[in-house]
Amino acid sequence: MKRLRRNGFTLIEALLALFITGLVSLLGCMLVSCALHFAHMDIDTQNQFAILQLRRELSVASEVKVDNEQLEYIRNHEKFRLYFDKHRIVKSPGYEIYMEQIDLGYFYKKEDGYYLWFKKKNKVYDFEIY
């Protein structure tokens, strides 16, 4: 008796491939939707996220000080510096960006804490960060 040789996929394999393709497409659409939502957030919301990140970074820091309108601190026995560069707030060593499109800004110390003052799109902001 001659054996039939079947080429192609079974129905189960085709359905499984279709299910996986649909799942990946759904996740991709959700990712694009989320990215578009963050891209169209208003400036105040973006500023609040950046300030929260700075506060979280400084909450575990020690020996915080302002030197020449730059904020220096020690975290996990390593020295870091926050400063303004090319209309951005960045952290060094490295070049981690916390906030962009800043016209002017600086860090300063008052008697009760450390503050960030900046001007962005003709609005002035002043936040306590530590």
SSE map:
Blueprint: H1 11-39, H2 43-59, E1 62-67, E2 70-75, E3 78-84, E4 89-92, E5 96-99, E6 104-110, E7 113-120, E8 123-128
Antiparallel strand pairs: 1-2, 2-3, 3-4, 4-5, 6-7, 7-8
Residue windows where pLDDT falls under 50 for at least 5 positions: none
SSE pattern, N- to C-terminal: HHEEEEEEEE
Rg over CA atoms, rounded to whole Å, is 25 Å
Q: How do the strands of the widest beta sheet line up side by side? A: 1-2-3-4-5
| Biggest beta-sheet profile | 5 strands, antiparallel
Cα distance spanning the termini? 85 Å
The helical percent reads 25-40%
The pLDDT mean sits at 86
Q: Give the number of helices.
A: 2
**Coarse structural class:** alpha+beta
Q: What is the count of structural domains?
A: 2
Strand percentage lies at 35-45%
Strand element count: 8
- Characterize the overall form: elongated
Could you walk me through the main structural features you see in this protein, from its secondary elements to its overall organization?
- The chain is of the alpha+beta class.
- The protein folds into two domains: 10-40; 43-128, no CATH class.
- The chain is built from two helices and eight strands, in the order ααββββββββ.
- It has helices at residues 11-39, 43-59, and strands at 62-67, 70-75, 78-84, 89-92, 96-99, 104-110, 113-120, 123-128.
- The chain has a five-stranded antiparallel beta sheet with strand order 1-2-3-4-5, with helices on one face.
- A hairpin with a 2-residue loop joins β2 (70-75) and β3.
- The relative contact order is 0.11.
- The model has no long low-confidence stretch (mean pLDDT 86).
- This is Prepilin-type cleavage/methylation N-terminal domain protein.
